[in-house]
Specification:
With 371 residues, this protein is mainly alpha-helical. It has 2 domains: 224 residues, Citrate Synthase, domain 1, CATH 1.10.580; 97 residues, Cytochrome p450-Terp, domain 2, CATH 1.10.230. Helices cover 57% and strands 3% of the residues. It is built from 16 helices and 3 strands. Strands 1-2-3 form a 3-stranded antiparallel sheet. Strand 2 and strand 3 form a beta hairpin. Helix 3 packs across helix 6. The longest helix is centred in the middle third of the chain and has 25 residues. The structure holds acetyl coenzyme *A (ACO). The site of acetyl coenzyme *A has 19 residues, from helix 15.
Length: 371
C-alpha cells in the first residue's frame, strides 16, 4: 500500500456541487466571477442544493422559507448565557449550539432526502441567528429577531448590530457569502461527508464540519490574518515582520493553497471589496498593509493570497469583531456542507480508507510483572 500525506491529489468522491479545474472555481457549472458579481446568496444556496438557478417565484419562496426558519428555540440562547462566556470562542459556541439545535428537532435523525432537505433549510437559516445571538449575548445584549423583509445578508448584519445595514455593507457581505459558499472537497466538507456516510444524522455532520473549519490551516486563518495585521500595525513594519516570520519558518496566514497553484480566484473579489470599504470608511491602513504583506510574501516565496486574506480587512471595515470572521465563514459554508450531505445521502457508501502501518513489527506480549 502507498499513501499520500494529507491525501494530496487523491480523488475521494464524485460530486456535482462545485469544481476547481485549472484554477477556475464553478458552482454547478456557473463561474464564480459571474455569481459573485450578479447573484444573491439565496440564489447561490438554491443553486447548490437544486442544481439550477431559481426563477423569480422559486427564489421568492425559498428566501421566505429561509427567513421563516431563522428563529431558534429560546433554550439555545439560555444555554449560551450559561457558557463561561469570557473564555468561549464564537466557533466553539457555534459548534456547541448547532449540536444542541439537533436536540430540538424531532426529525433530526432522518436521512431520507425530503426530510434532509428540510433540515438543510433549518440549519442554513438558524446558523445566522446562532452566530449573531452569541455575539450579542457575550456583550450583555439581547439577541435581535430577524426581519421578514430583509435578505439573508442584510438580516445577518441587522441581527448582529440591531440596525438595518446600508446598501454598500449589504452588497459587500452578500458577495463574501457567495464567495465562501462551497469549495469542492475541502477539509470541512470532507469531514461532513465522512460523518454522514456512516448514516449519522445531519446535525452531527454539520457539527463535525464546524470543528474542522475552526482550525487555522482552514477557516480559522481569516481571524489570524487580522491578528497579524494588528501586530504589524503600520505599513512600514510589514517587511521586517514578515521576514521575521520566514526566518522562524512560520506560516503567513491567508497565503498558499493545496489546490490553487496560480492563485485563489476568490481573492481578487475580496481585495476589491476591501479597497472599496476602506475608501468609504476613510480608514485605508488595513488595506494598505494587506497590499504590502501580499507584495512581500509573493515576491519572497511566490505564495499567493487565498480567500482568507482580504476577507479579514474587509470584515474589519464592516465593523465586525475579529473572532466572528470564522463563524461568518461557517454561515456561508453551511450551504456547501448541506449540498454535499444531500449528495452523500442520495448515493451513500461508507467512507473508510486504509492506513499504511509504520509501527513496530509483531512482538510477544510480556506479562506486567516481567516488564
Ligand atoms: N506561509 C509560509 N509558507 C508556506 C505557506 C504560508 N502561508 N503555505 C505554504 N507554505 C510553504 C510550506 O512551509 C512548505 O514549505 P517547505 O516545502 O519548504 O516545507 C510548502 O509551502 C508547502 O506547504 P504545505 O503546508 O505542505 O502545503 P499544503 O498544501 O499542505 O497546505 C495550506 C496548504 C494549509 C493552505 C498552507 O498553504 C497554509 O498553511 N497556509 C496558511 C493557512 C491558511 O491560510 N489557510 C487557509 C487556506 S484556504 C481555506 O482553507 C479556506
Amino acid at each position: 500500500m502507498s499513501q499520500t500525506k494529507g491525501l494530496e491529489g487523491v480523488v475521494a468522491t464524485t460530486s456535482s456541487v462545485s469544481s476547481i479545474i485549472d484554477d477556475v472555481l464553478t458552482y454547478q457549472g456557473y463561474h464564480i466571477d459571474d455569481l459573485a458579481e450578479k447573484s444573491s446568496f439565496e440564489e447561490v444556496v438554491y443553486l447548490l442544493w437544486n442544481g439550477q438557478l431559481p426563477n423569480k417565484e422559486e427564489l421568492q419562496s425559498f428566501s421566505q422559507q429561509l427567513v421563516e426558519n431563522m428563529e431558534v428555540p429560546e433554550e439555545i440562547f439560555n444555554y449560551m448565557k450559561a457558557y463561561p462566556i469570557a473564555d468561549v470562542h464564537p466557533m466553539a459556541a457555534l459548534r456547541t449550539a448547532v449540536s444542541q439545535l439537533g436536540l430540538y428537532d424531532a426529525e433530526a435523525d432522518a436521512s431520507d432526502i425530503e426530510t434532509a432537505k428540510r433540515i438543510a433549510v433549518k440549519l442554513q437559516a438558524k446558523i445566522a441567528t446562532v452566530v449573531t445571538g452569541f455575539a450579542r449575548i457575550r456583550e450583555g445584549k439581547e439577541p435581535v429577531a430577524p426581519k421578514k423583509d430583509l435578505s439573508f445578508a442584510a438580516n445577518f448584519l441587522y441581527m448582529l448590530n440591531g440596525e438595518q445595514p446600508n446598501e454598500t455593507a449589504t452588497d459587500a457581505f452578500n458577495k463574501a457569502l457567495v464567495l465562501h459558499a462551497d469549495h469542492e472537497l475541502n477539509a470541512s466538507t470532507f469531514t461532513a461527508r465522512v460523518c454522514v456516510a456512516t448514516l449519522s444524522d445531519f446535525y452531527s455532520g454539520i457539527t463535525a464540519a464546524i470543528g474542522a473549519l475552526k482550525g487555522p490551516l482552514h477557516g480559522g486563518a481569516n481571524e489570524r490574518v487580522m491578528g497579524m495585521l494588528s501586530e504589524i500595525d503600520t505599513p512600514e513594519n510589514v517587511d521586517s515582520y514578515i521576514q521575521d516570520m520566514f526566518d522562524k519558518k512560520e506560516k503567513v496566514m491567508g497565503f498558499g493553497h493545496r489546490v490553487y497553484k496560480n492563485g485563489d480566484p476568490r481573492a481578487k473579489h475580496l481585495r476589491e471589496m476591501s479597497k472599496k470599504l476602506a475608501d468609504i470608511t476613510g480608514e485605508d491602513k488595513w488595506y494598505e498593509m494587506s497590499l504590502a504583506v501580499e507584495k512581500k510574501v509573493t515576491d519572497s516565496k511566490g505564495l499567493l493570497p487565498n480567500v482568507d486574506f482580504y476577507s479579514a480587512s474587509m470584515y474589519h471595515s464592516l465593523g465586525i469583531d475579529h473572532d466572528l470572521f470564522t463563524p461568518i465563514f461557517a454561515v456561508s459554508r453551511v450551504s456547501g456542507w448541506n449540498a454535499h450531505i444531500l449528495e452523500q445521502y442520495s448515493d451513500n457508501r461508507l467512507i473508510r480508507p486504509r492506513a499504511e502501518y509504520v509501527g513496530p513489527d509483531k512482538r510477544s506480549y510480556v506479562p506486567l510483572e516481567e516488564r
